[in-house]
Amino acid sequence: MKVHADLCLIPIGVGVSVGTYVAECQRILREAGLSHRMHAYGTNIEGDWDQVMAAIKRCHERVHEMGAPRITTSLKLGTRTDREQSLEDKLDSVRAQLDQ
Predict the structure, then answer these.
(1) pLDDT value for 99
(2) Residues 91, 37: contact at Cβ < 8 Å?
(3) CATH of the domain at 57
(4) How far is CA 21 from each of CA 8, 18, 49, 100, rounded to the nearest angstrom?
């Protein structure tokens, strides 16, 4: 099953700046071969359910390995069975409405 995910992973107990941890998760998603797009408060990910979930788990594992004693994560998921739709398709749909 294909899934769209919106991931916001926040390491706790590592200070104010979390860019190093975010960058590491971006590397994990890239290495997993998943289509993803970072935004100001998280990352949109699309791909096979099991691959996406495995990459998110790896992000948690790696951030803990980097020294974060705690992590809080917000995760929104979307699936559909009526047709295939990419994250870019979703954005294009709204852009088309704006152009009217």
Answers:
(1) 87
(2) no
(3) 3.30.70.930
(4) 12, 5, 23, 41
- Residue 38 is predicted with a pLDDT of 96
Query: Tokens 């009526």 sit at which residue?
Result: 82
pTM given for the model: 0.90
pLDDT confidence bin for 100, thresholds 50/70/90: confident
User: How many structural domains are present in the chain?
Assistant: 1
Which tens digit of pLDDT belongs to each residue from 41-99?
Answer: 999 999 999 999 999 999 999 999 999 999 999 999 999 999 998 988 988 999 999 98
Distance from chain centroid for Cα 8? 7
Q: What is the mean pLDDT of the chain?
A: 96
Q: CA-CA distances (angstroms) from residue 36 to 4, 14, 17, 27, 68?
A: 9, 25, 22, 11, 23
Q: Is residue 37 helix, strand or coil?
A: strand
Find the domain containing 22 and state its range.
2-98
